[in-house]
Amino acid sequence: MLAHSTYDIAAVKYGALATMRSDVFLNYADYRESDEPTGLSYYFWVVRNGDRVVLVDTGFDPAVGARRGRTTLIDPFDAWTALGVPDEEDTTVVLTHAHYDHIGNVRRLKRARFVMAAAEYDFWISRPRQQRITRQVIEEDELAVLAELRASGRLTLIEDSQELVPGIDLLLAPGHTPGQLMLHVQTAEGGVLLAADAIHVDEELDRRMPFRHMCDIVAAADSYEIVDHLRTSGAVTHVIAGHEPSLMERFPTHPALPEHTIVLGSSAA
Question: pLDDT tens digit string along 124-133?
Answer without folding.
Answer: 988 765 656 6
